[in-house]
């Protein structure tokens, strides 16, 4: 994702804040309307993607399971089961296990995205016979979001002597009103890498992945911290990944504490300092601890890889924003990190701030990598007339996934052998 100026790419990142389900139902709330994001489901492209992947049965299946449910507890069990099953199904499809379910290639992340939205819409508009409070409904949607994004499925083998642990994050598709066909290579990478083992100079490393939404409110409610905190002290390396600029990878050197206001998937913008716990101790900038020199020097694939150092700041004592090609100056106020001021910058900022607050800055390599923008093939760039996929589009996504895997391996090699 990029800065507001010329760049948008991203993202980015996801989780809703935890709601504690009451032990007894309160007065039933009125089922809310679908969100802006969920309303896009009725368009032709999402329906085609679901049908051509076989994922068009996910939301109807959940609706059937919820039919006749008599209690909140029973509903929660079903939602957790169905959300987890959707994540596992998407991972297995991406990694070549089981039937493809249709003619879309297995590297496609979009079936998971649209199927999840179908399922959250079912829960959001569900009107059971028993009283379902607004708080309970929110908790059900939260459970569905978490399980279907792999956030409850991070499992490193117990023991595993000599086995390193790596955590990678991806994002949903975004800018869907510009082109509803869009895919996010970071989400596709998460599906392709989840549970896999990469071979490093120091031995094998197990990769676990999660996916985040492109929504400001989820980040404000702590989805990143809630998801990553249980694992950062246990892993040996982490990498947040999002879609960035055309034709290049970027290792983002510096992350800024500023939201630039670009609309999210619910068409909501936020322009403010990144909201975090304990804002009194919040820094304006955080930095990568990935081995960026080694990553940039390595031959990881067909796209060039850059050590990206540019930021936008208000200098100490100043009032106007200034672009700094070599990083921030002392005492400045952030207006864009290397990854811009959208949710890709924010996940990088939050993850590295959490690393630092856990006392891991000097021991845990981690930071953000932007992938190239995933482009459709020549002659298929107009969303009004184009098709949902083409051979060049698939090749670009497959190559980006492979190069992220190679970058991750270089990062692991460079850090684990020290």
Automatic annotation (TrEMBL):
Residues 1-27 form the signal peptide. Keywords: Signal. InterPro entries: Peptidase_C15-like_sf. Transmembrane segments: none annotated. The keyword RNA-binding does not apply. Residues 318-338 are annotated as: Disordered. The keyword Repressor does not apply. This is Pyroglutamyl peptidase. It comes from Streptomyces coacervatus.
């Amino acid at each position: 994702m990029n800065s507001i100026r010329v760049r948008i790419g991203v993202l980015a990142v996801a989780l809703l804040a935890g709601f504690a389900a009451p032990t007894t139902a309160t007065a039933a709330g009125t089922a809310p309307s679908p969100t802006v994001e969920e309303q896009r489901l009725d368009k032709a492209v999402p329906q085609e993607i679901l049908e051509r992947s076989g994922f068009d049965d996910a939301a109807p299946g959940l609706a059937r399971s919820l039919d006749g449910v008599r209690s909140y507890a029973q509903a929660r069990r079903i939602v957790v089961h169905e959300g987890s099953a959707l994540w596992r199904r998407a991972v297995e499809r991406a990694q070549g296990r089981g039937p493809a379910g249709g003619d879309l290639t297995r590297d496609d992340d979009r079936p998971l995205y649209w199927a999840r939205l179908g399922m959250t819409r079912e829960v959001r508009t569900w009107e059971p016979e028993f009283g379902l409070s607004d708080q309970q409904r929110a908790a059900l949607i939260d459970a569905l979001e978490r399980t279907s994004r792999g956030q409850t499925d991070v499992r490193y083998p117990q023991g595993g002597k000599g086995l390193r642990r790596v955590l990678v994050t991806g994002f949903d598709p975004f800018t869907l009103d510009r082109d509803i066909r869009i895919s996010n290579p970071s989400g596709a990478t998460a599906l392709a890498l989840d549970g896999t083992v990469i071979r490093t100079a120091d031995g094998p490393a197990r990769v676990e992945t999660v996916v985040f939404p492109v929504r400001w409110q989820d980040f404000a409610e702590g989805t990143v911290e809630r998801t990553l905190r249980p694992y950062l002290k246990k892993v040996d390396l982490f990498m947040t990944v999002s879609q960035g600029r055309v034709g290049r990878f970027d290792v983002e050197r510096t992350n800024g504490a500023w939201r630039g206001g670009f609309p999210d998937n619910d068409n909501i913008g936020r322009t403010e300092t990144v909201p975090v716990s304990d804002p009194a101790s919040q820094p304006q900038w955080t930095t990568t601890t990935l081995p960026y020199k080694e990553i940039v020097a390595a031959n990881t694939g067909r796209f060039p890889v850059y050590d990206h150092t540019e930021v936008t700041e208000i200098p100490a004592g100043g009032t106007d924003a200034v672009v700094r090609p070599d990083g921030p100056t002392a005492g400045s106020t952030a207006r864009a990190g290397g990854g811009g001021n959208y949710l890709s910058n924010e996940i990088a900022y939050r993850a590295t701030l959490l690393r630092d607050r856990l006392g891991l800055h000097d021991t845990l390599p981690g930071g953000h990598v932007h992938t190239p923008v995933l482009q459709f093939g020549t002659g298929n760039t107009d969303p009004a007339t184009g098709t949902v996929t083409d051979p060049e589009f698939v090749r670009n996504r497959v190559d980006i996934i492979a190069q992220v895997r190679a970058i991750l391996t270089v990062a692991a090699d460079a850090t684990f052998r020290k």
